[in-house]
Write a structure and sequence with these properties.
Length: 275
């Protein structure tokens, strides 16, 4: 399969490079001498947010920016997309979410952070992303398609910046945020840390409030801040039109509403009507 080929060639090459002596030497040389200095750390976080254009992510928490959506399509979706994602002390948790795509997350800076991964076979595990491989930390963590995950930044870590490669590309129609009692029943005590209360905390404010995963939902919304919202999640204009074309292929006519009239809303409506 095409996806299998892409996964093997991309992931294996990337993992081999990141674990090579050359890359380890570069990481050591480029790491700040005193990453926990509060003044320097906040200055660095502000620099990353400003330079990379990071904005707060709905439902999941954390900060993000879409870097690229592939022009290559596989079926109804682009073959992959890439984002930056950041956790900070103000937003130290990525709330539980499920995706039908592989999510390859690559450490750029900061951490450590704990990944709580939930497989569709009912098993779960905790993996720590970080620089110190001698302690079992990993610079790459993969959440396989069909799994759910939540992230919690270590208390002694100021921030975490990762690159996330999702294939096939992320879509609100194949992503769900939140969980309910069924999730607790499935994974309770499947690992030493998997108490019912802790599992509930991983969903954060989304417990018993699941959003996303609707294949045929036709409605988009332009909010007061100018963000495009679909199934509670933010989209770039490029992602909006990928979703609109997907909806047309299954016989749904996409529409967009807005909290107020604006030139941007009028232009998006015009472009959607022309599809």
């Amino acid at each position: 399969m095409i996806i299998g080929f892409l996964d093997v060639s991309y992931k294996e090459c990337l993992i081999r490079y990141l674990l090579s002596p050359k890359c380890k030497h570069y990481a050591e040389e480029s790491r700040p001498e005193n990453p926990e200095s509060p003044t320097m750390t906040q200055t660095r976080i502000n620099e990353l947010v400003s330079t990379l254009g990071l904005t707060e992510m709905n439902l999941e928490s954390g900060l993000f920016q879409v870097v690229n959506v592939s022009d290559v399509e596989l079926g109804e979706q682009p073959v992959n997309n890439v984002i930056y994602f950041m956790l900070t002390r103000k937003m130290p948790q990525s709330h539980l979410h499920y995706m039908e795509s592989d999510d390859v997350q690559i450490l750029i800076e900061g951490g450590p952070v704990d990944y709580y991964l939930f497989a569709k076979d009912g098993s779960c595990e905790k993996v720590t992303m970080g620089y110190d491989v001698s302690l079992g930390q990993r610079p790459i963590v993969i959440a396989p398609a069909g799994s759910a995950k939540a992230l919690i930044l270590h208390e002694n870590a100021s921030h975490l910046l990762i690159g996330s490669v999702v294939s096939p590309a992320w879509s609100p129609s194949t992503t769900r945020y939140g969980a309910g009692p069924e999730f607790l029943d499935t994974y309770e005590n499947k690992a030493p840390w998997a108490s019912r209360e802790f599992l509930k905390s991983l969903a954060g404010p989304n417990f018993e409030s699941v959003e996303g995963g609707e294949e045929a939902a036709p409605g988009f919304r332009l909010d007061a801040a100018g963000q495009i919202i679909y199934q509670g999640m933010q989209l770039t204009e490029e992602q909006l039109f990928h979703e609109a074309k997907r909806l047309l292929r299954i016989g749904q006519r996409p529409v967009i509403t807005g909290e107020r009239a604006s030139d941007k809303l009028a232009e998006l409506r015009r472009r959607l009507a022309s599809l």
